Amino acid sequence: MRAGRTILHPTDLSFAPGDRIGLVGPSGSGKSTLCHALVDQLQARGVAVAHVPQSPDEALDPLRRLDFHWSQAERALGLAPDAARRAQLLRALDLEGRPLNVRPWGWSRGMQQRFVIALALLASPALLVLDEPTSALDPIVAATTLELVEAQAARTGTTLLIVTHDLGLAAARARRLLVLHEGKLVEDSDTGTLLTKPQSTAAQALVAHRNWADLPC
Amino acid sequence: MLTVETLTVTRGGRTVLRDVNLTLAPGRTLAVLGQSGAGKSTLVASVLGLLRPDHGQVRWNGAPLPRGAAALVMQEPRAAFNPRLTLRRSVQEPLRARRLPDDPVRLARLCRGLELPPESLDRLPGQVSIGQAQRAGVLRALIAAPPLILFDEPLSALDAMTQKHTARMISELQREEGFAALVVTHDLGYAAAHADAIAVLRAGQIEETAETATFFAAPQSAYGRSLVEAAVSLGALGRQTAA
């Protein structure tokens, strides 16, 4: 409940390791509330879970250098500094060899977003929540970033939860789709089934507006 | 007819646009695609006459673009309005600026076309939804019937379903009103569905221009191809499958 209004109705969910899941719904459907509730509940049970916000500005302190962010995250997670691990994670997100002794704005937004994802992966999360991962980025950068995260998640068995208002994006990247409508989980099925046989009115409306157009063959 | 001829603009010692050539006929939509920093916003400001080019020119039917002949729809609908004026006051501003009389019949017709309830115009920009505020932005651009409307990422603040609905309303009004639309965007899906022609802008230069169907069937530049691949990979464009 928020401000006396039920934002999220009782919801049961289970995630398979290494799965790629899309959580879709229009603005105000309760996506962010569900994410925050998931992160809180899982953390309370000792499950490693990481959340990458929509914009890197929400995650990085503009006055602190990137190497400070990294060592602070290591301290918070109780990890000893490990240069090899850092190099490996940065390499996975195509940031190898970039100097970290700069403040966030010394890097492009796409690089900042990938840095935040690398920080999130430092926790070796069982679940990585990506909130509207493409909205702050240009399409080429966004596509590359998602491909890098997916490859890394596949290597480590991390489950990815992509939260977006855009069914086209979720369908292109996820194997399983959850549809949220007015705080209720109205659909939970594999991507192919949802696209061809959406059951709920909310999912049918999303499917009807999935892509702008088809490419001519 | 809008013609942009060998437009070159320098800002802060950096050449932001170099030798840009474009044409756009009335009733048509030209989408200028490009990533952040490609020079899209500089192009918009130059066409509006807000920036003086170092070289080249912007012309309308062979003459300099007359004052008030072009209107702009901005990316962030709420930021585009004075927060202390009702939408009605802001929407009618272009008429006042050009000393034109109010036209309640036209206003009512445009409101219908944009699905804006007339009473929503008596609210402040912060009191309506983002979708309504953006449609009020389109209404303000259209009210004085300019022959050219520039759209700077007009849909990016809206959610996926609202985007598609708003785009259809704009296209419908364009058919009725016949304005030329210059849209700068990085949303290839929107361009594929609603533009007649495409221009790809990269690092201040036009990489290619083509009719929309031609472009999406076979982009000529390597950069155009990466844009199309990224849009497919992000699900903005479907890949047609033979049934």
TrEMBL record, chain A:
Its main location: membrane. SUPFAM superfamilies: P-loop containing nucleoside triphosphate hydrolases. It is a peripheral membrane protein. InterPro entries: AAA+_ATPase, ABC_Ni/Peptide_Import, ABC_transporter-like_ATP-bd, P-loop_NTPase. PROSITE patterns: ABC_TRANSPORTER_2. GO terms for molecular function: ATP binding; ATP hydrolysis activity. GO terms for cellular component: plasma membrane. SMART domains: AAA. Keywords: ATP-binding, Cell membrane, Membrane, Nucleotide-binding, Transport. It is found in: Cell inner membrane. Residues 1-207 form the ABC transporter domain. Belongs to the ABC transporter superfamily. This is ABC transporter.
Automatic annotation (TrEMBL), chain B:
InterPro entries: AAA+_ATPase (IPR003593), ABC_transp_ATP-bind (IPR050319), ABC_transporter-like_ATP-bd (IPR003439), P-loop_NTPase (IPR027417). The keyword Transport applies. Keywords: ATP-binding, Nucleotide-binding, Transport. One of its GO terms (molecular function) is ATP hydrolysis activity. The keyword Zinc does not apply. One of its GO terms (biological process) is transmembrane transport. It comes from the Bacteria. Pfam families: ABC_tran. This is ABC transporter ATP-binding protein. The lineage of its organism: Bacteria, Pseudomonadati, Pseudomonadota, Alphaproteobacteria, Rhodobacterales.
